[in-house]
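Hi support team,

I'm opening this ticket because the web form for multi-chain structure prediction keeps timing out on my end. I have pasted the exact lines I submitted so you can reproduce it. The total is 1074 residues across two entries, so I didn't expect it to be a heavy job. Is there a limit I'm missing, or should I split the entries? Thanks in advance, R.K.
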Amino acid sequence: MPRSLVGGDLAGPEMAQPYMKKEDDDGEVEYSPFFGIEKGAVLQEARAFHNPQLDARRCSQVITKLLYLLNQGETFTKVEATEVFFAVTKLFQSSDAGLRRLVYLMIKELSPSSDEVIIVTSSLMKDMNSKTDMYRANAIRVLCRIIDGTLLTQIERYLKQAIVDKNPVVASAALVSGIHLVQANPEIVKRWSNEVQEAVQSRAALVQFHGLALLHQIKQNDRLAISKLVSSLTRGSVRSPLAQCLLIRYTSQVIRESSMNTQNGDLPFFDFLESCLRHKAEMVILEAARKITELDVTSRQLAPAITVLQLFLSSSKPVLRFAAVRTLNKVAMTRPLAVTNCNVDLESLMSDQNRSIATLAITTLLKTGNESSVDRLVKQITSFMSDIADEFKIVVVEAIRSLCLKFPLKHRSMLNFLSNSLREEGAFEYKKAIVDSIVTLISEIPDAKEIGLLHLCEFIEDCEFTYLSSQILHFLGNEGPRTSDPSKYIRYIYNRVILENATVRASAVSTLAKFGALVDTLKPQIFVLLRRCLFDTEDEVRDRATLYLQTLGGEIAVGNNEKDVKDFLFGSFDVPLANLEASLKTYDPSEEPFDISLVSREIKSQPLQEKKAPGKKPPAAAAPAPVSAVNSYQKMLSSIPEFSGFGRLFKSSEPVELTEAGIEYAVNVVKHIYDSYVVLQYTCANTIEQQLLEDVTVHVDASDAEEFSEICSKPLTSLPYNSPGHIFVAFKKPERVSAIGKFSNVLKFIVKEVDTSTGEADEDGVEDEYEIEDLEIVSADYMLRVAVSNFRNAWENMDPESERVDEYGLGVRESLAEAVSAVINILGMQPCEGTEVVPRNARSHTCLLSGVFISDVKVLVRLSFGLSGPNEVAMKLAVRSDDPEVSDKIHEIVASG
Amino acid sequence: METCPSVKNILLLDSEGKRVAVKYYSDDWPTLSAKLAFEKSVFAKTQKANAGTEAEIVMFDGQIVVYKFIQDLHFFVTGGEDDNELILASVLQGFSDAVDQLLRNIVDKRTALENLDLILLCLDEIVDGGIVLETEGSVIAEKVSAHGMEGGTSIAEQTLVQALTTAREHLAKSLLM
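Hello R.K., no limit was hit. The queue was backed up. Here is the completed structure from your submission:
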């Protein structure tokens, strides 16, 4: 018989040690039966599959080699894959079971194209009806993996039969294939419900599991069916632990959905979940305990779940300890009190061999710990930090930070801990986490300021990260001058000028200048130091030093007084950088200088993004788009001659829909606010194919808006089907006044019939009008959402004389969070420092807002909310602004809202 | 699919982190380099641990990995962070038990490579497209090794009752066709 003589044939008929030939040659090298294997040679060997007299054993070896190559990441070209596929299909002639199994595997790996699939379909269908269970099961899995919908209908009959096959392996194979197929062919798989239902009652554990999973897939959109399924199974006996876990998941889903509807405290099926805590399989207990902790249950309902988790904490199995501590950690985030009973066990886990467990135990303890145990905990953690990985350390540092914010009196020991950690070895991310934490603590806890700053100063004495050094120097410049003894920081800062790279030196110069500007007693000394910087080798450092010396020394006049100088040098930069960048990009170099005051100050509020688990795709950055939207409005409006003299566009609102979705004409409006004008931009769309609209105008009735007078209107001459157009109506209003009012709108036009086949419109039209919703201009339209970087600084820099404080009762509210967001919406201001988020179960909350009111008046608002009685919300509102009248105005807005 | 526990991959690496056999069931790692990078970091993160007879566990990048080492073989099973660790652990246990049985208690890299076909079939019998097929090691091993004997299934080896059952089934099937 003709045999390929290329490679692999040396082993001959004696196959007991099939691949040993290499060992003699490479005794020293690490032994592998696949040593020196090459794709080309193996592909040659695969030609043996075409041999009419098949040597099953040899073919098995070749397939194993092919599988080995694929497993190592080798890829076949299209041609190679096709060739191998055809060769492999020949092997169906062999009746050797071992070979057949490898053929199945190979076909799955090759994932053949649909025209290739046809070739093996009949062989596989034959196997699907074989008397050997193993063939049946495997053939089903292979066939279902490679076929498409049309072929599926042909074999559907056999699959339904297989689902109720009395061999569990065959039934499982069909059910699992069903689970994969249901994604692409839901309609077909749905027809198998009866058989699947029968499988769920199977005595074989895994058939039940697979049956249940498939049944849920089929019915997942039918809430009632799921609920029925759960209620019948929770009463019956589910044999397999895996199936029981599924049932627990489905049950908790039903509970969650039903409790949203019923609103009473009773949780259906809760008894079932609780009974699962006494199941004999640990995976079921864990699943049930976890699901209970995720539900909105009472402390009493929660307790048994916590108890079993506590037992798991002392298990000998690391996986079980991990699962338990991970669950408790999650519970501690929202209900720390429920976990305190486990504190003793958690403390012993701090020395767990498995560092993931130890870290979770520590961070849990940091959440449940009380004020008295903090010192002891911190001490224990210190000994633990040296032998865990950076990523765990970051978790610990973050936990320490939130603990410190919770117990501000304990800041001393925690700052010590953080600064000790700074001295340890660590990569950038870790160091950054620590520095960020110290900065947060200094900003939040006034008492921590001086020690915190000294810790940071010590850190920059020996800091290898330029970014961190610059960040700390900047922060030091803001905070240092306001401490009791600013002079003690100078040494640290000037050392940077002597010792560091150019970037850090430049930052240090700026910091020195801030001290000089804010602390009069230090000014002469600072000037001496800055003069020395004039001899620096780096341009940037010299330039900064020169600038500061000249301006602070009064040699160059900036503005009228010293305050203007300081504002110029150190004032917060109130133009969002993204907007500035966008404007600079569109700026045409010309005679006209770039005017920074024309840059839009508006930052669009970004949707609240909770920190998503890492590994998931980051949400698409939405920031740049709105910025350019504002700029493009400005561009578009200034290109219209009627509006070109209106000056700078102060703000453009979000589009407001004036019609309901899905009706004949869709209209929305954008409010463009100028200092003494308002332009309403109506965007209209005609959604009727048989109509052409002409001379479209919006008739605006401003009788309820006394301060506004219409000055011009730009109608649309024609509005064909499906191509939206804009109508503008401009109003004059008193300059710099936040006039408010209500406008009623009517769309007027001439309708012409259109022949949809030719697209031609009738000559004659009919006048018609269409009522659309009213529109309001409210105070929030005159407020720009502008963030400040450091609210406290900004607040302190505002004139206290401008402050206006008053208290309001907001009545009964749905929740504190709802009240907070309602007030934010009325004012239209930018929440700062994440204060718009109200912690769950909070009884009081402080929210910080900033914005710019029309005519560029900066406004800062401090809102203190408190709950009195059941959901009765009271609020204290404190406003500071550049203009006391605006402060009063803010109160008027809130009082009228 | 989110409610069904699912396995993202099963890895069998050697003591240097090189592949012996791997199988990916999810598209979290679309390219070969992504897969290799994952294997590398899994190996590095579990290097220090002394995973003996008890399965160990580590969580990183939103994945949970349970693992155990036998001789110079490292067994890993990966799942999503919302999944039940104990289910993953039972898959790991099933895999290592089955391998132990298939390799007749000589569990090392060399034997594994010599019987790579068995290892690959074993992976195929444990999980199908991420869904757990079987977790009992002996059952898995039996399914894998059954082919050897089954190939030679002859009427002579069966008892009379079995033969009758088979014949009846056969008849029924041919009637149905």
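A quick check on our side: Chain A touches chain B through 73 residues (CB under 8 Å). Let us know if the file doesn't open in your viewer.
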